[in-house]
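User: Hey, my collaborator sent me this sequence without any context and asked if I could get a structure. I don't really work with proteins. Can you help?
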Amino acid sequence: MNYLIRNAVAIHAEDNPTARDIRIRDGVITELGRGLVPTAEQPETLIDASGCVIWPGLVNTHHHLAQSIMKGVPAGLNQGLGEWLSSVPYRFWPKVTPELMYHAARLGLYELIRSGATTCADHHYLYHATTSPELEEAVWQAAEELGVRLVLCRGSATETGSHEGMIEHRIEPETIDQVIDRLEATRRKHHQDGPGAMKKLVVAPTSLIHSSTPDGLRAQARWARDHGLKMHSHLLEVEFDEIQAREKYHQSAIDYAEACDWLGPDVWYAHLVHSDPHAIERLAATGTGIAHCPTSNCRLGSGIAPVVDMEKAGVPISLAVDGSASAESGSMLQELNLAWLIHRAAHGPDVTTLEQVLDWGTRGGADLLGLPATGSLAVGRQADLVLYDIDQPRFAGVHSPLMAPLMCGEPVNVKDSFVQGRRILEDGRVTGLDERELTRKVQEGVARMLADA
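Assistant: No problem. I've predicted the 3D structure and written it out in structure-token form, which is a compact way to encode the shape of the chain:
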């Protein structure tokens, strides 16, 4: 379907900052301007964007959709990462059925859409020696039904190692052969090449330091690069990563990653909170990026990632929600708002700008995920865009309307949202999703999970 969106208050289109209208044909932005009128040559649906500002769709570069059903677990509310992993995600992981995973994924994607996101990189790590492939298929199915771009970062653990959660809950890891064979099956079935793909596969061992072997990491890196796939993992979220790297491998965590072929422009890491100047230098020199997760890092008391220094050094920056078990809002807009504020609190009012943070949450993420046809609004780009309704009391006093959603934060009302020109949210409602049914299914699933646990 073709669309003509008219009369926006403002549009974040860097090459055409005065534009107020957008024309979409065959999933692509074909015109930006003012006073655009319908054409007789092709029928198009008119959308009145009066009272709205239009942004590129937000790009979430690190999520754990399975955790959407693990919010606010009492045992983990005041724990740091190590204890929290055991009390929350690894406690419930063996109890997550494919059906529950499907509803969890729909819930997490629903929350992202309602905050303005159009792309999700899900670090899905619910794999062990006897995992059913249906658990992963549930994630692909949910994303396809809701129309979201999905980058599935296929987690893995090939040894229990120093991973406290796996040890306590006796989770049997996969072999490296199982990991590669299952990756290949997913690649053949789902992965799409190209700068505007709707589905991508990423090689993503859950932890470099705690549950992988050097040979296994090198094997996964080699396989990923042989097939042109990107690579992702957690690193330096807490100081324990550095301690374990030095004890087990007699080198820093970042040097260990490099020794295992896990730095490069095709790699990005979640968190990197405890990056010292040497780590930042190696990240920048190799083009390795970060998924900055400020809410989760605050919630777990992990610290603040030094992304201001990273950006100055040339490290690619993106933003991410992380799992809703440690970032209960599930909102990309909250991540933008907190990223704008938290570094100012630490370093002064001029270290982050609104434009800079919005770039991290859009273009930065799209480029990191290998989706450069998205992430910005320009003629020829794929039509991933969001209409935020700011014609409401809480935005009425804002003097910079284009950045009102970022400055004011949640709650926000997304009027319409498009992915590849498909309308996935219309007049404030996610298309193809019954909110009452979703609520009921999640509540029932959580009750069963608690009873089993």
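In plain terms: DSSP finds 16 helices and 18 strands in the chain. You can pass these tokens on to your collaborator as they are.
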